Amino acid sequence: MTKHSNTLGVLGLKPSYLKPSHAALQVLAASVLITGLAGCASNRDAESAIGFVAPVTTVEQRHPIDIVKARASVALQVPGKADGLNVYQKERIRHFIALWRSEGEGKLVVSGNSRTGLAGLRDLLIERVVPVSAVEIGRYDVNQLGVKLSFARLVARPPKCGVWNSDLGKDSSNTEYENFGCAAQHNLAAMIANPKDLETPRDQVDWTSAARQDFIERAFTAGKATGGDTSATDKAGTISDVAKH
Fold it and tell me: Beta 146-157 vs 135-137: how paired, if at all?
């Protein structure tokens, strides 16, 4: 017997580890039972989580707007006797290059088989400061004289509406029906200028002029007006003033 057990015997106490009491056995059995139940509960939770499907609670989940890649292109015919691109065609190309800068996903593909048309297109690319590394030469129909530009961009594809499976006259659950909110999502996909805005916000750029800030601070300190000069067009009247007449 150890020194510890001898000390307990002198004090008239029995070592608890030599002969567990009935209460200790009850506590031990209860702990084993609780541990087993906890294990069963965790297993049931894991099994139910595997096949669990979260309910659809928002319009965005019910009628999502798909962001897909598509190609934007402009094809211009150039007659064989033409000296090059006309004024209308040049403006279309300038507008298309600006569209590529704001919405393009990749390189600007250039193709054509008109020598004068390609020469005019090259001058416009130089004018709009399009780097050579951003231009890709593509194929073109040899049977038709002209030039063509294209690029890949993101497009918002609206959801398909018109699902009326449930009978609203017999539905007493007072929940949103299948077609609820689809028209709003469809119109949003048609109106959005840049589909990238649906995925991630744009970078915030501080265009504030330091010189303008210094001028406003000095004018405010001196008790002067801090606003800019009003143009003659603004002085003519606001929209509400014009509407009164």
Answer: unpaired
Reported as a single tens digit per residue, the pLDDT across 144-193 is 789 999 999 999 998 888 888 777 777 777 777 788 889 999 999 989 88
Residue 123 tokens, joined: 């001058």
Residue-wise pLDDT tens digits, 174-188:
777 788 889 999 999
CA distance 201 to 146: 39
> H-type helices in the chain, by residue range?
3-10, 22-50, 59-62, 87-103, 115-127, 182-191, 210-221, 232-235, 239-244
Q: Which domains does the chain have, with CATH numbers?
A: 70-154 (3.30.1330.60)
Torsion of CA 163, 169, 173, 175, to 10 degrees: 40
Pick from 60, 33, 27: which is nearest to 184 by CA?
A: 60
